[in-house]
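Design request, tokens follow.
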């Protein structure tokens, strides 16, 4: 019977976790636009109302994240990810999340930092969750005009020789009885009849402190609570700043929503042919509209409501960038990415994945499928645009390096299909560059692809169109021949003919433009 109850409990947690994942898309559609409106709001009353909406949406997001963390605890999928970061910045960032609420209720925040080193290496995300839960709990049980104290210090532990981090959160005005302190970290335990002052009005779920204890344990630390009538309630925890590796996580499973028959997408018509084209694949119409509006200044945005439709549109329009949701009906984002990467015509296209699933396994599997970037919902509009810009910038740097390294394929850092494509291109050019009749038209015929496709792939992979690529390849070979034949009285016009130029004068002009020196100067240079 106990096994059945345990399984039923696990099923319930899994069910609510799946629902929690689905909340992340509508939360993005609340937090994103309200954040934009807050930044633009001139009217103080309107701004105050928007901030209230935003604050409550963030509170709902914290509850969603708690449900997801609870399932990770139940399935033993919590993980450590030590990264370098500044602890003071994290402490200040976390307290700023509550500054508006504390100011509204007249709560004074006192910070006491005594740190030997502010730059530390440990799990930033999990420490943020611990701090957020403890501060949320403190605000909830602090009376108006009360006080919260955040203390942080460090000390060396002689037995282990490790640097330990100490953090405590104290709130005035409340007290926890001894019998409750023994159970306060238990799952679903709520202190009976404890006075709450939170303006949100939500009752405690009894999972926040349970999650805190599990996260502290994951950090190889300890947590305790102390309560006195005079000083209030203090939660304090210790953890080492040097962490050992732990096991990777397993994926969290989400639910798929049925496709709405009303979700009709208009045909794609480029608004501005000077802009690059971005394909947006998202099954939620509101989310799709929100993202399209966000990106339309920089891109012509084509739309699809599932991976299958997205793949067909990608084959038709050959977009310059793809942004896709992960969980969709018919064909999800992971499968779409695999299909894109397996298609030689499309595999060069940068691919950014959006998902409500923040598990480690989701990250790992997505990058194994060949994505270029990964954003967890909900997200700010600035995060999405910055990620797209970063992916494009990195690609431009790879293109520049490829050209600087004299077209060395090993520096391209692209997928296997694109490497194979470029190898075929280089083989065809290598065997035909000396033929003055060999141009882009002949290259296209030998590769058996359309001009549009060849052009897009060349620009995406190398940063230049095929006609310029062929020109630079011929100049590269000419430069190599000239350098090998210094002081051998070679004739420049002969070199020009050997690499496929009909006009030696045109060859010299192109050479000077590319290398800032004449072919004759290369011949006369000392070895």
């Amino acid at each position: 019977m106990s096994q059945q109850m345990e399984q039923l409990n696990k099923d319930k947690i899994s069910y609510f976790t799946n629902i929690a994942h689905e909340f992340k898309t509508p939360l993005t559609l609340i937090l994103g636009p309200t954040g934009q409106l807050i930044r633009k709001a001139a009217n103080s009353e309107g701004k105050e109302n928007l901030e209230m909406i935003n604050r409550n949406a963030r509170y709902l997001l914290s509850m969603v994240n708690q449900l997801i963390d609870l399932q990770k605890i139940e399935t033993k999928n919590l993980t450590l990810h030590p990264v370098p970061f500044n602890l003071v910045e994290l402490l200040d960032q976390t307290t700023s999340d509550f500054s508006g609420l504390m100011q509204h209720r007249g709560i004074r925040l006192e910070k006491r930092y005594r740190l030997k080193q502010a730059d530390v290496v440990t799990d930033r995300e999990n420490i943020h969750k611990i701090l957020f839960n403890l501060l949320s709990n403190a605000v909830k049980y602090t009376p108006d005009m009360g006080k919260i104290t955040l203390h942080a210090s460090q000390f060396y532990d002689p037995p282990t020789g490790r640097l330990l981090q100490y953090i405590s959160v104290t709130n005035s005005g409340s007290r926890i009885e001894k019998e409750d302190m023994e159970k306060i970290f238990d799952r679903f335990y709520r202190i009976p009849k404890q006075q709450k002052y939170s303006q949100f009005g939500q009752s405690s779920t009894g999972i926040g402190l349970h999650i805190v204890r599990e996260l502290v344990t994951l950090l190889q630390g300890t947590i305790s609570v102390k309560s006195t009538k005079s000083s209030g309630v203090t939660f304090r925890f210790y953890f080492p700043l040097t962490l050992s590796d732990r096991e990777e996580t397993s994926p969290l499973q989400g639910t798929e929503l049925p496709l709405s028959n009303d979700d009709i997408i208009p045909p794609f018509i480029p608004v501005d042919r000077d802009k690059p084209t971005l394909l947006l694949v998202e099954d939620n119409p509101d989310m799709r509209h929100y993202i399209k509006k966000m990106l339309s200044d920089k891109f012509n945005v084509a739309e699809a409501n599932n991976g299958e439709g997205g793949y067909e549109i990608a084959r038709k329009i050959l977009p310059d960038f793809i942004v896709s949701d992960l969980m969709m009906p018919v064909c999800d984002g992971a499968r779409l990415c695999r299909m894109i990467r397996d298609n030689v015509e499309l595999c060069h296209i940068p691919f950014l994945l959006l998902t409500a699933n923040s598990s480690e396994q989701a990250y790992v599997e997505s990058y194994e499928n060949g994505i270029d970037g990964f954003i967890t919902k909900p997200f700010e509009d600035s995060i999405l645009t910055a990620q797209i810009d970063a992916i494009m910038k990195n690609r431009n740097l790879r293109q520049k390096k490829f050209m600087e390294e004299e077209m060395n394929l090993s520096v391209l850092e692209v997928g296997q299909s694109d490497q194979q494509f470029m190898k075929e291109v280089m083989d065809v050019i290598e065997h035909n560059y000396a033929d003055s009749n060999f141009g882009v038209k002949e290259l296209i015929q030998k590769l058996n692809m359309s001009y549009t496709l060849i052009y897009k792939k060349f620009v995406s992979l190398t940063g230049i169109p095929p006609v310029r690529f062929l020109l630079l390849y011929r100049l590269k070979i000419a430069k190599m021949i000239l350098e090998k034949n210094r002081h051998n009285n070679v004739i420049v016009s002969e070199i020009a003919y050997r690499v496929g130029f009909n006009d030696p004068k045109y060859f010299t002009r192109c050479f000077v433009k590319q290398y800032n020196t004449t072919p004759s100067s290369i011949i006369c240079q000392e070895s």
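Comment from the thread starter after seeing the answer: thanks! The radius of gyration is 30 Å.
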